[in-house]
Amino acid sequence: MKKIPLLILSFAIITCSMSACSSVKAYQKNRINDSEMELSARKSQKFEQSFQLYREGGSGANGGKSGGGCGCN
Amino acid sequence: MRKIYLGVLALYLGILSSHAQTAAPVKDTSNYETRKLKVDEVNFVSAYYHQNGNNSAVTGGIGTENLTDFANTLDVQLSKLTGNGHKNTFTFELGIDHYTSASSDKIDPYSVSSASRQDTRVYPSINWTNSNEKTGNAYGFSLSYSHEFDYQSKGFGFNLTRVFNNKNTQFDFKAQAFLDTWKVILPVELRPPGYGSGSNRDDRTPVPNAPRNSFSTSLSLSQVISTRLQAAFIVEPSYQKGLLATKYQRDYFTDGSERVENLPGGRYKLPVAVRLNYFLDDHFVIRTFYRYYMDNWGIRAHTAEIEVPIKFSSFASVSPFYRYNTQQGTRYFTPYGLHNPTDVFYTSDYDLSTLHSNFVGANLRLSPPNGIFGWQHLNTLELRYGHYMRSTGLNSDILTLALKFK
């Protein structure tokens, strides 16, 4: 239980420190802008995430719902 | 039922035909940009899902979980530029799901076929977002509605995006509230005298409604780490309040008694997730996802996912994927017939039990420059299949088709 806030804090520090030192220019982003590199779930995963929401106790933080809006958990 | 599908089909064809009749935009080398409302894209997603298992919560943790779901959504994105370099984007979405469930049919096993055997869910939504074309900063609001035979939902949302560090860092905030109500349908043998079935077909006796409200916030930080690597860190705390137990689900006790499911009226959830995508070379991309989940019902879960798109060209890829989930179940779960009569909260819903699951499949993506099958407006086609295996014995398959029109 105590590990979770520590994990969040350490990731936040790492991410912030990375943002301070990295500077990828717009013209260097052809790979980052590749359609397969999107930092979100695909449109075709939409209903997959819905059934996982029903069939498992955990939900949220994946682009799908975290509960509410339907007769699910 | 047929009318609904025909209505959706007519809407879909109407949008396509009106889009097709739009004159081709004239290429302009000046800085002038049109300020008319234009269609950015239209997305159609359709999925067929089938599952089978033998731990239905409706019958106390035993019995068939056979279920099929045919789900469809159509969304239309329209945008209009304003004079000060901002863009207004409107997204309209309509979703229609139709399912048949053998376990829900057991609410009243003595009827030939109860009203709960099958249902259709209709859920329209609208989002408006105002974005700064130069900085990428944006904010917006959304409204949603969902209707099922026994469940209604009204949703409200706010979203905010801030981009900084030469567009290498992005912060997203989202807040959502769902104000839901659902019919308190009880198993036939546990209904008090005069309590209705909930079906409006053969029984007009009213049954009470109960609220279920959900509030969630999502905080996401995305970071470009190098020319090949980017990551996102997501936290999505949420709180649900109201009737969280499904009252037509049965529980059986060690003394032989039977009751309807009872769970606490509040639930805090805290999922924390990381996405990491790496561009290995021109043919391989590695997409990864990990989530830790915890809630105040005692559920703890780890979910890890990896997907490796194999690019045959810039326009075609196949992405095999694998997802593993393991969870420690809620403290209120006990299998069929093993609940202690002194328990206050109890469930035999195996979705909330200790389990692990494997999900494997592949995603085909085609996005040729001349359009799919030479049709310029059909920009992208995705076909995705996945097979799900749960340690409780439940297995399922899902096939999804996603089309993007531009």
Question: How would you sum up this structure, described in words?
Answer:
Chain A is mostly helical and 73 residues long. In chain A, 40% of the residues lie in helices and 0% in strands. Chain A contains two helices and no strands. Chain A has helices at 3-21, 46-55. The longest helix of chain A has 19 residues, at 3-21. Chain B is mainly beta. Chain B has one helix and 20 strands. Chain B has one helix at residues 2-20, and strands at 38-52, 67-81, 86-101, 118-132, 138-147, 151-164, 169-183, 209-224, 229-235, 238-242, 250-252, 258-260, 266-279, 285-295, 300-307, 310-313, 316-328, 355-366, 378-390, 395-405. Chain B starts with a helix and ends with a strand. At the A-B interface, helix 1 and helix 2 of A face strand 1, strand 2, strand 6, strand 7 and strand 8 of B.
A few lines on this structure:
Chain A is mainly α.
Measured by DSSP, the beta-strand proportion of chain A falls in: under 5%
Number of strands of chain A: 0
Between the first and last Cα atoms of chain B, what is the distance in angstroms?
30 Å
Q: How many H/I helices of chain B? A: 1
Molecular shape of chain B = globular
SSE ordering of chain B? HEEEEEEEEEEEEEEEEEEEE
Give the helix/strand class of chain A. Answer: mainly alpha
Question: Based on DSSP secondary structure assignment, what is the total number of beta strands of chain B?
Answer: 20
Cα end-to-end separation of chain A: 23 Å
Query: How confident is the prediction overall: mean pLDDT of chain A?
Result: 77
Shape annotation of chain A = flat
Rounded to the nearest angstrom, the radius of gyration of chain A is 17 Å
Oligomer: heterodimer
Amount of beta strand of chain B:
over 45%
Q: What is the radius of gyration of chain B computed over CA atoms, rounded to a whole number of angstroms?
A: 24 Å
Largest sheet of chain A: none
* Uncertain stretches of 5 or more adjacent residues of chain A: none
The percentage helix of chain A is 25-40%
Structural class of chain B, please? mainly beta
Q: What portion of residues of chain B is helical?
A: under 10%
Q: Unreliable runs of chain B, pLDDT <50, ≥5 residues?
A: 11-30
